[in-house]
């Protein structure tokens, strides 16, 4: 299959591109810079110059492909409405050339869209008032194509997609611990975060492209919920620092931003049982805590 990919040079993208190529697919991938194009070439993909704002470029990439995998997401987090509109417009531009073809359109969201406080499943509705509600419009834009002859599906990734050279939520947490001299959590730390290793996520994306039924919502979570206190304690041991419980007010100034403090205090366990059964996806790579203990997280300088 010839797959058009966005976000192929990002954090998770190279692992996904490699997984698809290893499975025998060919890849054309969106590149908005010379650096991104060089990275994609080194992986074995063909760069396609453009950006998420260049809708003609997105349409052209989708028209020439047997399927589309959309992982890119960006913009100014101080203007979430603009980010939402930008992503929705990109998804609509990617999906229209696939109408009535039966070709796959796989897009990325996050499990943080789900309601807090209980383990949710792929069948539950996202929370329109939640901390990641700005991702819901993209999900709906994608799933509407399922009624237009597109094999449309959504992959909701866990908030931590961990693995080598991570630069997401966990490295930011470690950087704060180094800076402040304490590895902190919010409240009693019993709030739970789903997690998935990057290489397991790559397999899930490939399976979604290859065989996810139209209208599927998939949960990319190998672990349904790791307590945040256990994450903070593992970081504390590795850095030889104390742990500390913070009130939400203190957390808002302790962490990088109020949004990060809210995210670190979020209780959002999810199940991926349906995803695993539907696609035959079986995560096999290390857990988050094992990665923290034995990976590169605590031996490299975080952002």
Query: End-to-end distance, in Å?
Result: 37 Å
Class by alpha and beta content: alpha/beta
Number of domains: 2
Name the beta content range: 15-25%
Secondary structure blueprint with pairings:
Elements lengths: L1 E5 L6 H10 L3 E6 L2 H10 L2 E4 L5 H9 L3 E4 L9 H16 L8 E7 L25 H9 L6 E7 L2 E3 L6 H12 L2 E4 L5 E6 H14 L4 E5 L2 E5 H12 L3 E4 L1 H7 L3 H7 L8 H7 L8 H7 L9
Parallel strand pairs: 1-2, 1-4, 2-3, 4-5, 5-6, 6-10, 7-9, 8-12
Antiparallel strand pairs: 9-11
Helix pairs in contact: 1-7, 3-4, 4-5, 6-8, 8-12, 9-10
Describe this protein's structure:
With 303 residues, the protein is an alpha/beta fold. It folds into two domains: 2-160 and 195-223, NAD(P)-binding Rossmann-like Domain (Rossmann fold); 164-194 and 225-268 and 286-294, UDP-galactose 4-epimerase, domain 1 (Alpha-Beta Complex), CATH 3.90.25. Helix content is 40%, strand content 20%. The chain is built from twelve helices and twelve strands. The strands form three sheets. It has a seven-stranded parallel β-sheet, sandwiched between helices. A three-stranded mixed β-sheet has the order 7-9-11. A two-stranded parallel ribbon has the order 8-12. β4, α4 and β5 form a beta-alpha-beta unit. α8 (228-239) packs parallel to α12 and α9 (248-254) packs across α10 (258-264). The longest helix has 16 residues, at 80-95.
């Amino acid at each position: 299959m010839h797959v058009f990919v966005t976000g192929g040079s990002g954090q998770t993208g190279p692992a996904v591109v490699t997984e698809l190529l290893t499975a025998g697919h060919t890849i054309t991938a969106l590149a908005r810079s010379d650096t991104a194009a060089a990275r994609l070439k080194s992986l074995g993909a063909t760069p396609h110059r453009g950006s998420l704002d260049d809708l003609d470029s997105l349409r052209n990439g989708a028209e020439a492909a047997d399927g589309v995998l959309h992982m890119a997401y960006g913009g100014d987090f101080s203007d979430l409405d603009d980010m939402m509109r930008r992503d929705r417009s990109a998804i609509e531009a990617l999906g229209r050339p696939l109408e009535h073809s039966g070709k796959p359109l796989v897009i990325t969201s996050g499990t943080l869209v789900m309601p807090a406080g209980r383990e949710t499943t792929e069948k539950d509705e996202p929370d329109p008032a939640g901390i990641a509600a700005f991702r819901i419009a993209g999900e709906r834009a994608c799933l509407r194509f399922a009624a237009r002859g597109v094999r449309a599906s959504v992959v909701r990734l866990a908030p931590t997609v961990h693995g080598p050279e991570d630069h997401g939520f966990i490295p930011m947490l470690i950087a704060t611990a180094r800076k402040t001299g304490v590895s902190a959590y919010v409240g009693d730390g019993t709030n739970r975060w789903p997690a998935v290793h990057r290489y397991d996520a790559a397999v899930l994306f490939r399976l979604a492209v290859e065989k996810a039924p139209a209208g599927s919502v998939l949960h990319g979570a190998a672990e349904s919920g790791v307590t945040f206190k256990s994450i903070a304690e593992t970081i504390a041991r590795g850095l030889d620092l104390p742990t500390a419980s913070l009130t939400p007010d203190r957390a808002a100034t302790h962490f990088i931003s109020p949004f990060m403090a809210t995210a670190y205090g979020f209780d959002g366990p999810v199940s991926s049982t349906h995803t695993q059964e539907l696609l035959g996806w079986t995560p096999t790579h290390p857990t988050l805590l094992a990665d923290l203990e034995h990976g590169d997280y605590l031996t490299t300088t975080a952002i």
